Every structure is written in structure tokens, then in C-alpha cells.
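Per your request, structure below.
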């Protein structure tokens, strides 16, 4: 049975890790100030502010993996929050001591973008619910008051975030479906196929998809790869998020209709999550119902 972490309360200590790219110290300091204003006590992992000689990684693969393990296994921490995405999570995913983490009490885990790889691993290796949400070491976190508030409510008062109603979201393919939430960054999901931590299939899932900085032909390639591999067979519904820097929306809409409509499952378009402002927080690896007629996502009642 999937483990669902408890809600956070003021005074909770939360671990901050950097599983992917290097973290700007000044940006992170401002983001952590926001978390402290919520009553949380951020605890930086030892290698959060490291920079690998490559310039695009936050420290060595081994150090990043050990930071994640140690934060997750620390009983004094109520959550683990990723500072930012970037690149590099796949490089460290197989170095994580998943057995040690499976023996630890589940806790809140937050991130998105490159962190998609870890969301998938947490589902397949730990069977724990996680949060696809904004990260404090990014400029977007500081600029996004709406997204920050939605994350805060999801963490502290999840009953206020149980029904996500976004009137601006539209039905690409109409319908209503229930399934287990999964997904994140499209390019990462395609890259994760066949890996030890990747999900073998999206069957029965409410699949969230978003990306940034990818040309339409590359998005076509990623979707086609998921289709050809059979990974999308049996998916219950698809929810499309932001596509910042991916091309004109009419072109993207044509692409999504071409690639996804033949699946004959509900497709809800333009939900603001991922690389967008605002970026809403979405629970992953948890049951949900999507209804395109009301532009809603409904999640299970929170734990007491």
C-alpha cells in the first residue's frame, strides 16, 4: 500500500538537497527565508552548494546520492525538498541506497523538472507519495506568490488543496477518469525508459506531462518514443502542463492532438504546473480523478 507522509506543522525541520544542477547561494538563501516564514527550519545537506568541475552538476554523483539518502533517513527531518532541477539526477539515481531509504519512515518529498527521475524512483522503489512542486533555489520560486501559497497549503493544510479547479484548463479530449498520478517532465520520462528506477508502464495512471525549451519536433520524438515502446498503453488520462519555450501554442496543440488523441482517453490541457508561473503543486503516486468538463483534479482526503 502506498505510503502517504503526514502533513507538515510549524517547527518541522526540512532537509534541502541538490540532486542535479549547481545551486545559486543567494537565490537559495531567499527561498529558504520563505520556508522559515512558514515556520519551517531548513537544514542544508552537506553538498548543496558544491559545484562539480563540469560546471553543470551540484557536486559529485556520489555526494548528491548520499545527501539524498542521509536526508531521507534522518528521523529528525519531516521533509526533503530539492533546491533546484537542472541536469544530473539520472547520473546519481543508481548510486542511491534505496534499501536504506525503504527502511526509513516516509516523509514529504518535493521537486520537479530533472527531479522527475526521483519521483519515478520513489514510486517504483519506495511506493511513497511525493509532490511535484516548486523549489526554493530557483528564481521562479521567488517570483511566484501563487505557486508558493499553493505549495504551503498542500504541505500544511492539504484539505484546502484536495480539489484543484483551474477554469483556464481546457479539454483537448473530453472525459472523466480515475487513476494513480504520475509523470512530470516529458523528456525525462522518455530518457527513463528501461532504467532500473523507471516505471515499466503508465497503465492505470493519470499522467502529468510538461517540459521546457524543447522544439515541437523533439516533443514529437519523446511522445512517439513513449507510444512505440508501449509505455502509454492503458493510461487512464493525461494532464498537460506548461511548455515554456517550446513553440507557439497552436502548433503544440496540433502535436498533442496528433499524438495523444488516438489513445482515446481524457486529455486536460493547460494546467499550470511545471516550468510556469504560477506552478501548482501536484501529488504524485496517489489516486486522483480528472474531469475535463469541470477542469478539476480531485485527490483523496488528507491524512489526519
Amino acid at each position: 500500500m502506498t505510503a502517504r507522509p503526514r502533513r507538515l506543522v510549524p517547527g518541522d525541520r526540512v532537509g534541502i538537497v541538490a540532486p542535479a544542477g549547481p545551486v545559486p547561494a543567494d537565490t537559495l538563501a531567499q527561498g529558504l527565508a520563505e520556508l522559515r516564514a512558514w515556520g519551517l527550519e531548513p537544514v542544508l545537506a552537506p553538498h548543496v552548494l558544491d559545484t562539480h568541475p563540469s560546471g553543470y552538476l551540484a557536486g559529485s554523483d556520489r555526494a548528491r546520492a548520499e545527501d539524498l539518502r542521509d536526508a531521507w533517513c534522518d528521523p529528525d527531518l519531516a521533509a526533503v525538498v530539492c533546491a533546484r532541477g537542472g541536469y544530473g539526477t539520472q547520473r546519481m539515481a543508481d548510486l542511491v541506497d534505496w534499501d536504506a531509504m525503504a527502511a526509513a519512515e516516509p516523509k514529504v518529498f518535493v521537486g520537479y523538472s530533472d527531479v522527475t527521475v526521483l519521483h519515478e524512483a520513489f514510486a517504483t522503489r519506495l511506493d511513497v507519495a511525493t509532490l511535484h512542486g516548486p523549489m526554493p533555489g530557483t528564481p521562479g520560486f521567488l517570483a511566484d506568490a501563487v505557486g508558493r501559497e499553493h505549495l504551503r497549503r498542500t504541505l500544511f493544510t492539504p484539505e484546502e488543496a484536495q480539489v484543484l479547479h483551474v477554469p483556464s484548463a481546457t479539454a483537448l479530449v473530453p472525459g472523466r477518469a480515475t487513476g494513480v498520478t504520475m509523470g512530470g517532465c516529458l523528456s525525462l520520462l522518455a530518457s527513463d525508459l528501461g532504467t532500473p528506477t523507471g516505471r515499466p508502464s503508465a497503465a492505470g495512471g493519470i499522467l502529468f506531462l510538461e517540459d521546457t525549451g524543447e522544439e515541437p519536433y523533439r516533443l514529437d520524438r519523446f511522445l512517439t518514443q513513449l507510444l512505440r515502446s508501449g509505455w502509454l498503453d492503458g493510461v487512464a488520462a493525461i494532464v498537460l502542463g506548461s511548455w515554456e519555450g517550446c513553440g507557439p501554442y497552436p502548433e503544440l496543440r496540433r502535436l498533442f492532438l496528433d499524438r495523444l488523441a488516438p489513445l482515446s482517453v481524457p486529455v486536460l490541457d493547460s494546467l499550470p504546473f511545471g516550468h510556469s508561473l504560477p506552478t501548482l503543486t501536484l501529488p504524485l503516486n496517489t489516486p486522483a480523478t480528472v474531469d475535463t468538463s469541470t477542469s478539476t483534479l480531485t485527490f483523496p482526503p488528507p491524512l489526519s
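Residues 288 and 299 are 5 Å apart (CA to CA).

Regards,
D.
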